[in-house]
Amino acid sequence: VVHPVHQTISPKFLKSLGFDAIITNAYIALEHYGDTARKKGIHEIVDFDGVVMTDSGGYQVLEYGSIDIEAEVIAQFERDIGSDICVPLDKPTGYGLDYYTAKNYVEQTLTNAKDTLRVMLEEITNDEEPRHNKKETQMYKQIWAGPIQGAEHLDLVRYSASELDKIGFTLMALGSPVEVMEAYEFLILAQMIASVKSVVPTKPIHLFGAGHPLTIPLAVALGCDLFDSASYILYAKDNRYMHSNGTARLDDLVYLPCHCPICTKYSAKELLEKDKETRTTEIAKHNLYILQSEVNSVKQAIVDGR
């Protein structure tokens, strides 16, 4: 995850580590840059020449309850700024909602998804193209990820995935896993992913908010293909140091059990004594090295058939 305005770690550094795709927030970009973002495009705004995915503001909805924008407006903005992968405005169910409230959120998300697709279809102006090809053409011009909601209510997850599949989304994105993972409910997470796979077994699945060294291989083994997270920087701000088996607090470490450029540059004591900004940046870079190493290990395991 890259913030479209304030970037502690530059996207160019992410690219140098081998991260060929990033996700940023279209809603924040619209609020902060407006027409400037439309003129420059999101790749220039974040200074990244790889794949850029944009979230529509669903995270802000989860945090604050709602945002003052319509699904059609943010969808048009995502198209205008040239996002490679886009997410319609969704209403995240989070974790712990009662069934009927969660169902209402799922229905709101599906309505937004339909409105988004309608806006995209209306943008096609090439009259020479046969009408029956328009939907498929637009869905591939930019990849639109269908946001699946429902959380622990597995029948809602299956319903959400099924309806988004019927609408025509080529990529599925499973929402609301962060609060489930924060509650250490990994069984529920597994059931959520399995519920999606049971409905759309052949479509790629993006898992929102999965950025822990332990969750990456689990998510891939269960059938997820892409994932995003701001964990590298959020953990760093809290002095949390990632390693292959989990995380540790920097205050508890005497030695740094890693050979990345950051850990060969400092001792645990020296890193802890750095000012807050420097320490956060350096821990974040270390965390990224760990995450990239985990991703590569998982990729090799896939090649090995294990």
Layout of helices and strands:
Blueprint: H1 11-17, E1 21-25, H2 26-33, H3 35-40, H4 42-46, E2 51-55, H5 58-64, H6 71-80, E3 85-86, H7 99-122, H8 134-141, E4 143-148, H9 154-167, E5 171-174, H10 177-182, H11 186-199, E6 205-207, H12 215-222, E7 226-227, H13 231-237, E8 240-243, E9 246-249, H14 268-273, H15 276-304
Parallel strand pairs: 1-2, 2-3, 3-4, 4-5, 5-6, 6-7
Antiparallel strand pairs: 8-9
Tell me about this structure.
- The chain starts with 10 loop residues before the first helix and ends with a helix.
- The chain has helices spanning 11-17, 26-33, 35-40, 42-46, 58-64, 71-80, 99-122, 134-141, 154-167, 177-182, 186-199, 215-222, 231-237, 268-273, 276-304; strands spanning 21-25, 51-55, 85-86, 143-148, 171-174, 205-207, 226-227, 240-243, 246-249.
- It has 15 helices and 9 strands.
- The protein has a 7-stranded parallel sheet with strand order 1-2-3-4-5-6-7. The chain has a two-stranded antiparallel sheet with strand order 8-9.
- With 306 residues, the chain is an alpha/beta fold.
- Helix 9 (154-167) packs parallel to helix 11 (186-199).
- The chain is 52% helix and 11% strand.
Number of strands: 9
Biggest sheet strand line-up: 1-2-3-4-5-6-7
Uncertain stretches? none
Report the sheet with the most strands, covering strand number, pairing sense and barrel closure: 7 strands, parallel
pLDDT average, as an integer?
Answer: 89
Helix content: 40-55%
- Helix/strand/pairing class, anyone? alpha/beta
